[in-house]
Input
Amino acid sequence: MQATEGKPQKKARGADAPMEDLWQEGAEGRGLSEESLVVDLAGFEGPLDLLLHLARTQKVDLTRISVLALAEQYLAFIDRARKIRIELAADYLVMAAWLAYLKSRLLIPKQAKDDGPSGEEMAASLAFRLKRLEAMRDAATRLINRNRLGRDVFARGMPEHIVTERRSAFEASLYDLLSAYASLRQRHAITQVTIEKRNVWSLADARELLQLLVGTVEDDWTALDHFMLRYLSDPTERTTAIASAFAATLELVREGRLELRQDGVFQPIYLRRGPKAGEGGEEGSAPRD
Amino acid sequence: MTEEEERAEVLAEEGTVVDPRRLHEAGRIAEALVFASAGPVSEAYIAERLPRGVDVQHVMRALKGFYAGRGVNLVQVDDSWAFRTAPDMSFVIRTDETEVRKLSRAALEVLSIIAYHQPVTRAEIEDIRGVQTSKGTLDVLMEAGWVRFRGRRRSPGRPVTFGTTRDFLDHFGLEELRDLPGLDELKGAGLLSGRIPANFQVPLPLGEDELAEDEDPITQMDLEELGLLAPGGHDEE
Amino acid sequence: MTEEEERAEVLAEEGTVVDPRRLHEAGRIAEALVFASAGPVSEAYIAERLPRGVDVQHVMRALKGFYAGRGVNLVQVDDSWAFRTAPDMSFVIRTDETEVRKLSRAALEVLSIIAYHQPVTRAEIEDIRGVQTSKGTLDVLMEAGWVRFRGRRRSPGRPVTFGTTRDFLDHFGLEELRDLPGLDELKGAGLLSGRIPANFQVPLPLGEDELAEDEDPITQMDLEELGLLAPGGHDEE
Output
């Protein structure tokens, strides 16, 4: 864009910016830098995207990358993620397994009667996929930076109606047709499904109930299950109630309103008033001393 | 028909000289037709309305040349023609209302894969990207009018194939698909096929000299760890 | 008069010397501005965007002359400028032509049901849509040439069955009915969400020329009986 006239120029930037931001955001959102290997998979679109990013850190043409080093990097990355207990999507783990296999293929001499693909073939196919993905990304960038209609190039603003080219006087695209059909069918399909309403205890429900209970708990240890059962009329609610209640108990313990004790695995959980049991229940439901 | 007209017509059919006045008139008609429309007008439609014996391609080419250096250019989009402002005029015309659809990174990637690989099935798109196409991505592209169902692949399951539309060409200022940037190089490099091309360089797997600065070469330790890599991750940093 | 001559004339009138390249550039800008605008553009607006020291009136007069003999003219409306197709071009640009209408939502729904579920009776269409279909909707689709009577169902009342036409396929860019995307593809394109029951199905439409087992071909008799012998049948009753 040439010309320096203030206003339109600024507009021009403004219009360009979102497109570029989109890309930059994508790059910045990746929690992976060369210095510190911070693990964050949020910015990546699947294992291939992550691999491509790692490959770029090798700073060589993709046809010349060391696939072995790449596999190492990826596996190290995944290890790190598991260590800090990041839940990895299955496809990341599948890729890790494949790369571990590839690594073994590359390092262990080929056996005589081995009919699987050779390590070199596997490496080549990986390099090819990375190269192809990168090529498509470059193509996308070049495409988006072309002179685009409505942004850089404009159509006649005041069109006149010319004799219609279509034989039909109606206009509709295949997309219109299909989306009409899909949403119609979907609308009816969904209204026919009735999902049985499940009674679920929310954490808030459980907390409220427990705070009520705290007032009645003596200084003696009492079993949690015991408590819960007392308030449950419907047996189907048991599981959800106990789960939510337990989570709420932990919260109350942290706040010092409750103490918990369990003698062993699968043993009943006991609770009693904590040192700060009487202090301000923020919902008015908790009795104040 | 006068003798002269007859002669002109014969000549026109032979692709030679045409009465210049007639050619001028044909140019005016074509110009008016394309100018009147905001969208591209097909060559066949224009041809039907030209005086008999005038070659539409000849007329359009002359018109294109005539407008080449002006503020408004005649451009070809597939088998159609449209007037568009010259690209270097964008800075004058841009207004506040000027807004172009913003595509997500994923949508843009899918769009370019469809453009370069068409006809392409959804499975192929996913193979190239290495991830499932999230719901709504193809939807957005179809709604924008850039992507369409093309047909079905003659293979098991007859999967639907996707391709781009004329609006796509129009939007990105392409005359035809062959004008896609870098198409020939990509083809030449075999990057538009599903299979690894024969000439694709196989990287040297043990090229230690190609390691990046922040990488260590493989050690005996690593070798021992082989096979045990998945669950543990016992090494300290 | 050529552009060059026009420019020379303007200069002579002015009595000043303006760089001809600058003048040409000013013409391009004015041209692009007027072309892209949705309404007539005021001279003041154009003037603001021209290179400094260029007189807008001279630029516009020169442009007007440039387009005078062409298929498109630059015309002045009060103090504003607009492009209009040349008056003698009205025989190609018939502005009285009916506008292309968008198909209504209801019509789209009915059309898509007919496409997927053909051969289908009116009662069945209504059953799938869950609402009554007005006669007008089917009429519109027939008028558009996308829907036709296929035959009659061999069931009580012998209801008429509907199907799509060759024009339907042409218009929507389909080679055959089997090219209509199926359940998986609709899902894949994001048109159907995952929240659909397991027994949900999208039918595979029956080809245009095949009759279903319980279907009889439609006859001339039937058409007359239905009172639907279209345009030709202006018979008195």
About this structure: Chain B has two domains: 3-88, 105-230. Strands of chain B lie at 41-42, 72-77, 80-85, 120-121, 147-152, 160-164. The radius of gyration of chain B is 27 Å.
